[in-house]
Structures are given as structure tokens and as C-alpha cells.
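FIELD: query
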Amino acid sequence: MVVSVQGVDADEVPLMSTALPDTHDRRIDTQSLLAPVRKGSFWLAVVLPFVHLPLLASGLGSADGAGAFLVLLALNALALVVGHGHGPDDAAGA
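FIELD: result
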């Protein structure tokens, strides 16, 4: 039995949706913005240990040398954390 309302079949009546707005597009934009940051942080974490070597070779006897070493070490740790998600499958990585 098909119910008709003012000449419109029940099969043709659009149903109202109670679904929440789709936030998938927003996540895609966020991921596309974060991919270059992750990539840069990954490569910074790879390169920074080579900057530590001259500081270690010259010695950390002075306060300036020790401070610079600690700042670079903290920056390297931060770059490791931020760049951890970077991989060869990243769309922005190519």
C-alpha cells in the first residue's frame, strides 16, 4: 500500500536527516596542513644531531656551549615528537 500526500508518493518524499554535519572535510584540511610540518620536523630531527657534533668536539666547558647544546637537544626532542608521524605514504611527502 502506497500512501499519497497531495499527489506525491511516499517513496518520493525526502526524509529529514538528524545526522550531525560532516567534519571529514575539516580533518582532511588539517591533515594536509600538518603534513609539511611533520615532514620538516622529521628532517630537522635527522639533521640536528650533526649540529651537536661540533659542540661536543669543542667541549661543553663554557656556559654558552652547554646552553647551546641543551637548547639544540630540546629542539631535537621536539622535532622528534612532531615529526614522528611522517612516513613515505604522506600525500605531501612526494
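FIELD: remark
The longest strand covers residues 4-5.
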